[in-house]
Amino acid sequence: xxxxxxxxxxxxxxxxxxxxxxxxxxxxxxxxxxxxxxxxxxxxxxxxxxxxxxxxxxxxxxxxxxxxxxxxxxxxxxxxxxxxxxxxxxxxxxxxxxxxxxxxxxxxxxxxxxxxxxxxxxxxxxxxxxxxxxxxxxxxxxxxxxxxxxxxxxxxxxxxxxxxxxxxxxxxxxxxxxxxxxxxxxxxxxxxxxxxxxxxxxxxxxxxxxxxxxxxxxxxxxxxxxxxxxxxxxxxxxxxxxxxxxxxxxxxxxxxxxxxxxxxxxxxxxxxxxxxxxx
Length: 279
Fold this sequence. Notes:
Layout: E1 16-21, H1 30-39, E2 43-49, E3 64-69, H2 71-83, E4 114-115, H3 122-128, E5 135-153, E6 159-169, E7 174-177, E8 192-193, H4 208-214, E9 216-219, E10 234-239, E11 245-259, E12 266-269, E13 275-277
Parallel strand pairs: 1-2, 2-3, 4-11, 5-8
Antiparallel strand pairs: 5-6, 5-10, 5-11, 6-7, 9-10, 11-12, 12-13
């Protein structure tokens, strides 16, 4: 039993019966649905089917509220839950690992890697493009979390120590401040996609894009003027590059491999909603 199921509302005190249809070669038939409805109780029902089906098979069910999710919808829902940190999957430990092909490249999830929360709503994104039936497999996109320690200098040479954390996103060739509240409590153990090596920036050279994120404007000393009115100017405090110490750690951006019917698979960025080439 389930107290609240998507697409069936949230009527207080009303339960939903959940059914599972195992995988098979043939789709669900109208005759099977009719036989099931004879034994099923009235009320609301949620059928999770590993077999395809035609929406028309529900036309004969007038006295019951029934929602069916097919294989694609189930996979997409599970993938979203994994990326959002609401579902954690663990593989059983095996004493003997199967042999791997010599040319196979496997990117194992890094235990120290954190992951950002997704911003893109996959379901809405697919609907907007007419790709409701596209396969979507959740993955992680490799990125780097940079920690910068150093001293900001004011116009008069005054110094103020600080620590900053910046995310380097090689997929969009951008840098942005790291916000702790945008990190998943548990990073999902998914396949990690690596970008082209040329897409990584030389952050240790302190590029202009990084320095702009670290600059601060602070109130200066009041300007003495004749009379009772004085003004306070905002002054730029900038990083003293000679004091900068940088370190980096792996971080991941959520994403999906999108496979539209008849089209080349592409990588959907879970933060900016853009598509990138999939190797």
